[in-house]
């Protein structure tokens, strides 16, 4: 359950005015937490764990969108 608490703390942190290296670090940490939670979810099938993974995935996508920039097709 230590991973769940760590994921909840990570979710509560503020992600404003980040450098590129901070964004990479956040993305990697989110991915590691999601994978760890997934292993727990496979055993317990708890919907609360799935909800945490979904919220972390949303944070990860938001950070990665800013990290990678917008595609050229979206600008046309």
From TrEMBL:
Top-level division of the source organism's lineage: Bacteria
Name of the protein in question: Uncharacterized protein
């Amino acid at each position: 359950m230590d991973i769940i608490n760590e994921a909840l703390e990570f979710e509560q942190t503020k992600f404003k005015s980040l450098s590129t290296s901070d964004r990479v670090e956040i993305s990697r940490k989110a991915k590691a937490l999601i994978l760890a939670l997934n292993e727990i979810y496979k055993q317990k099938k708890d919907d609360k764990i799935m909800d945490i993974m979904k919220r972390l995935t949303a944070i990860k996508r938001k950070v990665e969108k800013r990290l990678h920039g917008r595609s050229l097709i979206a600008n046309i």
